[in-house]
Automatic annotation (TrEMBL):
Protein name, UniProt field: Major facilitator superfamily (MFS) profile domain-containing protein
GO biological process: myo-inositol import across plasma membrane
NCBIfam families membership: SP
Domain Major facilitator superfamily (MFS) profile residue range list: 65-511
Pfam families hit by this protein: Sugar_tr
Catalytic activity: myo-inositol(out) + H(+)(out) = myo-inositol(in) + H(+)(in)
Record-annotated membrane-spanning stretches: 61-78, 163-181, 193-217, 223-242, 315-339, 351-373, 380-399, 419-439, 460-480, 486-507
GO molecular function, a single term: myo-inositol:proton symporter activity
Gene Ontology CC terms: membrane
Topology of the protein relative to the lipid bilayer: Multi-pass membrane protein
Keyword Transport in record: yes
Amino acid sequence: MSNQGFKAIPSRERGLSNSSLLSGRTLFSRTHHDASVSRSSALSENTSSILNGYAVKPSPLTILLTFLASISGFMFGYDTGYISSVLVSIGADLGGDGLSLTNREYITSATSCGALFGAIVAGTLADAWGRKPAIMGCNLLFIAGASMQCVAKTVHFMIAGRLVMGIGVGIGSLIAPLYLSELAPSKFRGRMVIINCLAITGGQLIAYALGALFSYLHITWRFLVGFSLIPSMVQLVAFLFLPDTPRYLIMVGKTNQAAEVLRKIYLDAPNDLIAANIAELSSFNSDLDLENESRLHKIWSKIKEIHTVPSNLRALIIACGLQGIQQLTGFNALMYFSGTIFEMIGFQNSIGVSCIVAGTNFVFTIVAFLVIDRVGRRRIMLWTVPGMLVSLLVCAWTFSHLDFNTDESVSVTASRAVWNLLTVVGMMSFVAFYASGLGNVPWQQSELFPQSVRGLGTSYATATNWSGSLILSMTFLTMMEKLTPSGTFIFFAFVTLASVVFIYYCYPELSGLELEETQDLLTGGFNVKKSVQMAGERKDMATKLASFQDNVTLDVV
Ligand SMILES: O[C@H]1[C@H](O)[C@@H](O)[C@H](O)[C@@H](O)[C@H]1O
């Protein structure tokens, strides 16, 4: 097939934004006279939206890529999830009389430290090598890290294995949602990224459940770690045969390959439309302007671009803000320490109770999956984050009626049982509200940034996430001791209140927007009101298009 129709032209030669949208549109309408096209172009804004109309349901390739890319999410969840039961079962396997508290802390936080480092470099790697090689690179790190842990005989070697695996987790936590966002037709984008979140929470649940099962059956923890080798090998081998995202391929000028992938995503779309779409996407590609620059110069230009272009800076504030509040509102404290908390208030089976937290998290991620593209990111957040706030206050209140005496076995009186039950209900409702919104929406981060700084921007945001997770895991138990459990949960409630204000004023509705349209929206302000109005218009347009298609089908019949 000829490359002529969609030769990538540097943006400076063509002019950006609206004019480029026009060029794609005009090229398309000039070259295509199909009836279905003129009806779409009458209703749509750019070729991506027109293409979107052809994605009635996700194509087989889209489904395959979504599930295979989400293995990275599974690894993220499984690797952060199995450690709590491994720590309990290691005993003296790493030498000495068993693990000291400090060693436990080092082994646990090595993964978060590695992940923080991985997140910082991941965006730049993804831009330099491509999304697909970055996914394969993190598989190699998973495999190396897990193998090191399986054979570890000393604490130091175990920590090194956790660190190597952590770097893979950090890179994977950025690349999988980035890969999915760049691949997805915009009407499925939210759900496709949430499938990766389902894999994270599912991985955590499976790790907890297997941990409980293995310790019950007295199976060595090394098998629990070794199990993680299977999904990483599957993903590594599968990606040898799978493509990179069309947007990345266009970014590096491989337009023929991009066309091939687009054809498999939008099965019924005419070739001219795909050519026009590639021409349009190329016009957003400022990387072509830097074609002859050194790699270091390119990186520096991107760093400058993300801080000095106001719309990029706003995107950065939103992405880092959401990732920061995802962690600092305290969810992972429950994920990592719910067993400890429940033990403190007199529950016997702490691993079982931790499964309840992980299970609720997983189930409500399914709820988010079902509603995100229909209800919208902003609306979900404005409904669920206040719910988290109320649940945290309930927990603070019930904690104040409980005696946190870890040394004595507490006899369970009737009134204590009621407070215990209320505490569990408060925590489960906190987790449910979290998982329906804040647990997932921040991972839609890629849609905030334009192609040229998408890798870098998501690196900042993912690094914020891992820093928050590290801070929380290092301070939570101390906070419980110094501020009291009620005080700690009131602190989280304050952070949650501030988050509601942040979301209300700074987070526009991005559902249904093409990735290239976000930059326009964030120009001149956060434009929250305008975004809500545009979301309404897009919904109307989708309804009109659907009824138009129905009528055309009826006419044809
Ligand atoms: O989105 C995920 C998910 O909510 C996980 O359950 C949590 O452990 C992660 O920190 C978070 O990033």
